[in-house]
Amino acid sequence: MSDNVIISSRVRLARNLADYPFPCRMTDAQRKEVVEKVFAAVKTLPDDFMLVNMEDINELDTIAMVERHLISPEFAKDVTGRALAVTKDESISIMINEEDHLRIQVIKQGLSVAQAYEIADRIDTALNRELHFAFDNKLGYLTQCPTNLGTGMRASVMLHLCAMGETHAVSRISGNLAKLGFVIRGTYGEGSDASGALYQLSNQVTLGISEKSAVENLTNICNQLVQSEMATRGRLMESMEYQDKISRSMGILLTARLITHAEAVRLLSNVRLGITEGIVEDVSIETIDNLMLSIQPASLMRREGKRLTPSERDKARAELIRTTLR
Fold first, then answer.
1. Containing H/E element for 105?
2. What's the whole-model pTM score?
3. Which of 9, 54, 75, 182 is 20 to 30 A from residue 190's alpha carbon, by CA?
4. 161/172 Cα distance (integer angstroms)
């Protein structure tokens, strides 16, 4: 049941090298040294990493990385002195010289927070042997932002809360989640909208709590949200008008010749719900999830191999959706 609601799980660890100031105080020479040291340490890992200097990447590819959640929007805004280590399957990535020297990130499909943490912890332990992270016996891992002190861990889950979003239940429960030490945000984190009814739920507390407890608490909250979402979906599906909305969404996606990104993700969200409720057949959830990623502006232009005007993107997007769904 959780697979119908939960898209993916992510664990991110913020770490800093003990021998260097935080990135906001580093010189250009120090930034370069940190990149070189981290690259050398990453090469000792058994994982198959690609090492990328962000200054060598064009703007289109950089934005596409943001769309695929490999890097943060903040990381993409200024790539000077920044680098990325990423596995070929893109399940593990390490941002270098963002807000902290390292942001180790692991993404797994479905509700897999514990598994993602195990991988992140293994990489963290191995890199610490080579790099020596800044750590205080009372405060834990030292980070540029005080809100990350302690574990330095942010665990998050991407959820498709189409029914709760439709009934405005998400906004109503956000206050209660905050009291429990969690925050629910849009698709790309703080300040972003829930594109296609995709929300990020993550822990806020990093000080005075163990990584294991944070992972368990997040998993428990996710299971409760899944139950609420499924119950809300059941009530919505009693309405013939809502069933019709899903069928019409599929019809538009199969026939549209021009479609904006905003309209496409809204309709795909409806179809994804229809698949889980048995209204839409012969299309898989994986197909919809992959389309959600590939129809984003930069990802679409990378697929086409050239820059496109907004109207050209709308045409290419509609064609890609029609071809895929048929």
1. strand 102-109
2. 0.91
3. 54
4. 13
